[in-house]
Amino acid sequence: MMTKQSGPLRAPSTEKVLSLANLCKAYGDAVAVDGVSFDVERNEIVGLLGPNGAGKTTIINMVLGILEPSAGTIHIEGVDIATHRGPALERTNFTAVYAPLPGNLTAYQNLRFFGLLYGVSNLSGRIDELLRQFEIERFRNTKCGVLSSGEQTRASLAKAMLNQPHLLLLDEPTASLDPASARDVRTKMCEFAAQEAVGVLWTSHNMVEVEKVCDRVLFLSHGKILLEGDPKTLPREYGKETLEDLFITVAREPLTLEGNGA
Amino acid sequence: MKHLSRIAAILLRQFYLIRGSPARLLPLFVWAAVDIVLWGFITRYLNAITPSGLNFVPSLLGAVLFWDFFTRVMYGVTTTFLEDVWSRNFLNLFATPLSISEYLSGLVLSSIATSSIGLVVMLVLATVAFGLSFFVYGLMLIPFLFVLFLFGIALGVLACALVLRYGPAAEWFVWPIPAVLSPFAAVFYPLSTLPKWMQCVAHLLPPSYVFESMRSILAGNPVSGTGLLWSGSLALLYILLTAWFFTRIYRHAVRTGLIARYSAETLS
Known about the structure:
The complex is a heterodimer. Chain A is of the alpha/beta class. Chain A has a domain at 92-164. Helix content of chain A is 33%, strand content 24%. Chain A has helices at residues 56-63, 85-90, 107-117, 123-133, 149-161, 179-195, 207-213, 234-237, 243-252, and strands at 16-27, 30-41, 45-49, 71-76, 79-80, 92-96, 167-171, 199-203, 216-221, 224-229. Chain B starts with a helix and ends in a 12-residue tail after the last helix. The longest helix of chain B is centred in the last third of the chain and has 32 residues, at 225-256. Chain B has helices at residues 2-19, 22-25, 30-49, 57-86, 90-94, 100-130, 141-166, 177-181, 196-202, 206-218, 225-256. Chain B contains eleven helices and no strands. Chain B has one domain (2-264). Chain B is mainly α.
């Protein structure tokens, strides 16, 4: 059963872990992200949704400091990533299906390598804890390249948790998982978001998953935020039955939604 | 402390990779050893057929050893960098708090560790098998190695910057660099042998001063301290310039999105 909860465990805090202000990214004449502004608060899971090419991964790359915005600012817990990249990234981590851990290192070696890069204290204990938590203890000394995609995803998630990030970016974290493993991952992430002082930015094309885990969703289209709201009520606000119907409308007929919000 | 931890991460990763892979361990010393054996026999043969009784071992075999050391230092930097290229690790790596200066420091430390292995193997082989005595160079051995080390680091960083800029296929830039430079560096012959324009290039290459000094010692002539000092300064300058160049290339890659889509090779 999913653990998304209301009440004290998920009591939202007003502290912002991520603030994007008027963020833009253009490649020549092609605009990938066009004036995007939003916040992610502590203990909040925000879904970043949109069709392929909408600008989700571009935004995540800019938050991770591996892509420079053309304009706008990114603050992680109030720290400007443009001027204080190191301190901002110390409190951030991510996992993405297109960024697997190096396959020529074992799960343990990868976690030690990245643990040192993130300056994790009591690293050995933290690695043991994460190997146990993500049920990859038996792959401790197995090279990540020979793990199944589900096991690799769990190893990547363990890496994403190493530094107990305050901002966690999950780019399609369950894309390569079977339904049972995907549910386990969702449960773990929800528990993590609830118990730690963390904000999560989650992208997914699985609308059922988004509805289960996200407190709030942002629909992107052509680099702009088209819609924003509670995934449970947003579809009805726009006359749609499900979040998936709304997604399809955003992907195919975004103009019909502009300015029609409830 | 965190700076050291991040630099140590690069070193540790390289240790893990080398420890678990003969394909990485053997090149640290095998090619250098092959060079020493090959040139060891060539010098023996030259010694045998030269009526003057001239000993080619310290001039030719010593030069081979110094040049191979420089090459190992350069490759030590580039192979550590290439590990991130081969494992498509840029996204994970550069999304951490690791700074460029920490990354480059890690590459340099890794090179020190790997090139030292090659140097020890070459020294033992050249001394034991072919009677090369390093006492003939005296204390000058230390600045010789130091200058070659610095220049190897500088060229290694330059090669990394080129691969970062032009994508994984630009790896071929890396391997021939020492071979391209060797004629200009006057490894085996006096600088005066070269035509004027090549001498001008040689004066910009720190190794040329090392090899000229080495030959001066063997000929019983004094070594130009100014020349060696100049070569050391030149090598240091190259390190600063190439580190600046690498940073510029990295920033360009972050600005254009090349880091995030490195396999595309170029986005321009």
